[in-house]
Amino acid sequence: MSEILYPLTSEVTLVTSFQDADPMGVIYHGNYFRFFEEARRILMEKIQYGYLAMNDSGYMWPIIDTRVKYVKAIPFNHEIRVTAHLTEWENRLRVDYVIYDGKTDQRMCKAHTTQVAVEKVTEEMCFVSPTVFTDKVQQWHLHGKL
Q: Going along the chain, which residue ranges are E strands?
């Protein structure tokens, strides 16, 4: 019997705020990262490796690269659905995102962020993700939960 692998994904529904909009009434491009962050937070909590657990494990995970493709402007007071999918974890943490219109399901944005582990004590970047993280991802992929 072959292994069943469960993809590690998360989803959050949000309503955009007036304070996130630019003078034209659409969400300022820099504020999209707050939406990505919320979906990533939920994703990492699924494997019990949220921000407090990261800190307690002795690692920081700074973002070293991002890519965003803005497909359609998002107005304020608009419902959106943000998905996050863990696509790399062995040597770095890469999360792919899609923002959908909450009513029509039309794709409005796609993006990814890349993070690396940095040891808190030495402040040295790790070239391989620490096992405290990869073990949790592997367990999720095999069982769909921790």
A: 9-15, 59-60, 63-70, 79-88, 93-101, 107-115, 118-119
